[in-house]
Amino acid sequence: MKFHLILHNRSITRVRLVALVIACQIIFLNSCFKNPFPPELTTKPIEVVDGVTVVSGGDITDHGGTDIFHKGVCYSFENTPTIKNSITEDGVGNDDFSTTLILEPENTYYIRAYAINAAGIGYGNIISVRLDPLPFTHAIIVDFGDITGFEAFMRGRVESNQTITLCGACWATSPDPTISDSKTEAGSGTGIFETTITELIPGTRYYARAYAVANSEVFYSANYEFITLDYPQLTTREINNSGTFVISTGGDITSSGIIDQVGVCWSTNPSPTIADNTTQDQTYYNSFYSDPFGLLPATTYYIRSYATNTVGTGYGNELVITMPDASVFDLDGNAYTSVTIGSQTWLTENLRTTKYANGDDIPNVINGADWQNASSGAWCYFENIDDFEVPYGKLYNWYTVTDSRNVCPSGWHVPSDAEWQTLITFLGGPDMVGNKLKETGTAHWAPVNDFATNSSGFTALPGGAQSALPGYSYPPNTLGMFWSATAVDMENAYGYYLFDSYQSINKQEYLKQTGLSVRCVKD
């Protein structure tokens, strides 16, 4: 085994010592003085100073009749150390001496004093010593994770040959936290421990360390840096279709992480929360669109977006809007606004009523076969999903449109084909009029709606249609389809459609059992 020593006194090489001894013996043989003899001495008892340091030396009992010119101790793993092994040099003269050795723990050493005079080498008695292992303690972070806005999990390990009275985690917002900062107490002893760091602040950078206490001394691991999850960060989209009852807004999420729920919330008081009115919407590339509903005429609302994750709910900036004073109501109490385009006045929302103007109910037909075979008035939602009520309204078959009880509010009616043509002609003809009629943006229309201006104020929405034939579908977000009151023949009637990627409006024949949106024009 190899070992390294730090000597208290200057070392001399064994070669020099042996050479000196031989030289002295030659001098002795040629001397005319009384014959000296090698020194006699004993080895001082070993005193262990600390885990690696011992003190020994020699007591000279007889210098042998001549001065001692080298003395010290020799030591080895072998049980009979000599000056051929490791040595110290502790001066000259006949006085007792002491020396300090730095040894390696967990090894057995044999030590004895030596002294050299002109007659030779004298050795003291042999003493052995074995140092205990050095005390050590290591605190290590093995795993760190499950970071939320308020908690984090740590798995640590303690390695030690001391008695560990306490271990755990400590943390702070600056590096090198200690147990004087926040801490957990995960038990005692060595080995693996697990602990949960609690009472953290969302969106905050922290530094954590594992710690272990042994003999009132605290040992720490390296820092682990982490950031707690934050509340979602987002902005509220500007309100579209202001001045109507089909306003839309939404949000753009600017933070990362998994979002559980998004939408907008609104109230007549500032700073609305999810405890007030809300929508629940779907995100698309960290953006979403929302349609606030049930807003009352001539009422001011505060609206802001929200997003919820595991930490909680974050809110976007607040918008304020005052709803228009409604000019028209149906018998269900739904409010409508209107716009004058040329010589005509049109409602700016799709019809939502369940009653004719005389108060009679319009049947809600949800069975597919019954819908396709109907010969009288009926309404439905697209594929009978009531979420389409806002903002697209209801879909009506043509028999409802031409019923003498009038599906539109009193003073209004379903436009004839000629009245549709009057609108189209006033706006410049069918080729480009779709842009002037369609709602702007992509809150409802599919993403190919770049040229829509809604310059007419008509605010056409893509409500799709309910097919009169099994297996056919006219999906929302792509098609806005509207009845006219003009029949083609016994089975068909005229309607008009707008398409997301078309800039035009197009006339089309539809089976009378088809469910289309209705826009009313003033009598």
Summarize the model shown:
By secondary structure, the protein is mainly beta.
Task: Describe what you observe in this structure.
By secondary structure, this protein is mainly beta. It folds into four domains: 14-130, Sandwich (Immunoglobulin-like); 137-227, Sandwich (Immunoglobulin-like); 234-322, Immunoglobulin-like (Sandwich); 329-522, no CATH class. The protein contains six helices and 35 strands. Strands 4, 5, 7, 8 and 9 form a five-stranded antiparallel beta sheet that branches. Strands 12, 13, 15, 16 and 17 form a five-stranded antiparallel beta sheet that branches. Strands 1, 2, 3 and 6 form a four-stranded antiparallel beta sheet that branches.
What topology emerges from the helices and strands here?
Elements: H1 14-29, E1 40-43, E2 47-48, E3 53-62, E4 70-76, E5 86-87, E6 97-102, E7 108-117, E8 120-123, E9 127-130, E10 137-145, E11 152-160, E12 164-172, E13 182-183, E14 191-197, E15 205-214, E16 217-220, E17 224-227, E18 234-236, E19 249-253, E20 261-267, E21 277-278, E22 287-290, E23 300-308, E24 313-322, E25 328-329, E26 335-336, E27 338-341, E28 344-347, H2 368-372, E29 379-380, H3 389-392, E30 395-396, H4 398-401, E31 412-413, H5 417-426, H6 430-437, E32 479-487, E33 492-499, E34 506-511, E35 521-522
Antiparallel strand pairs: 1-3, 2-3, 3-6, 4-5, 4-7, 7-8, 7-9, 10-11, 11-14, 12-13, 12-15, 15-16, 15-17, 18-19, 19-22, 20-21, 20-23, 23-24, 25-26, 27-28, 29-30, 31-35, 32-33, 33-34
